[in-house]
Amino acid sequence: MKRSDISRRDFLGKATIAGAAGMATPAILTQPLWVQDLLLRT
Fold it and tell me: What is the pTM of this model?
């Protein structure tokens, strides 16, 4: 296996993690707001 293959896979893995974190962060930040909204409605 070539060194470039390893670094490319590592880069893709990090990019995937970064993308998932970027999508999850807004959901985590806004979650308390809708949880609070649900608690206030019931």
Answer: 0.48
